Amino acid sequence: MEVLKKFGRYQRQAGLTFSLASSGNFSELPKHHPSKHVDKVSDSIVRKVTAEQEVQYYLDAIELLSREEFKYILKNKFIVTDKLSNMRLQYDLQIGETTFFKWYEEALLEFAEAYKNGKILAELGLL
Q1: Is the torsion defined by CA of 24, 29, 32, 36 positive or negative?
Q2: What does the mean pLDDT of the chain come to?
Q3: pTM for this one?
Q4: Environment class of residue 17 by beta-carbon count within 10 Å: exposed (0-12), middle (13-18) or buried (19+)?
């Protein structure tokens, strides 16, 4: 899903990293050289705040998923720094390939419904 693939970019812009046991610090201002023009600093701050908001939209949408397994799959495929392979996720969840891909598709659909109140589905004309 294209939207989930953008998470890493927003995460870097926000200056955040995630593991399953960590949470980001949203209070740090971007670092800048004192001689930089004020507009560049304000643009940097706007980009950082926007990225932080996007990161939060992703995390909020994942937390709304109906099953813990769905959350585990999406967090480990898109959110955490050390992403897990499909085979590793199947092993961790103790499920076969068919079940994994069924759950993965269901998780993506639920994410699409939850992300910004269905924005993805609306853009696809499905709402």
Answers
A1: positive
A2: 84
A3: 0.71
A4: exposed
Q: Which of 54, 58, 96 is nearest to 77 (CA)?
A: 58
Contact predicate 114/50, CB 8 Å: no
pLDDT at position 23 is 47
DSSP alpha helix (H) spans, the chain:
2-5, 7-14, 38-63, 68-74, 86-93, 97-114, 119-123
Phi/psi of residue 118, nearest 5 degrees: 90, 15
Strand, helix or coil for residue 10? helix
- Report pLDDT for 32: 53
Each domain of the chain, given as residue ranges in start order, spans 2-123
CA proximity to 75, closest of 25, 114, 111, 48: 111
Model confidence at 119: pLDDT above 60: yes
Task: Compute the distance between CA of residue 54 and CA of residue 80 in angstroms, rounded to an integer.
Answer: 15
Counting Cα atoms < 13 Å in the Cβ hemisphere of 8 gives 9
Retrieve residue 2's tokens: 């294209």
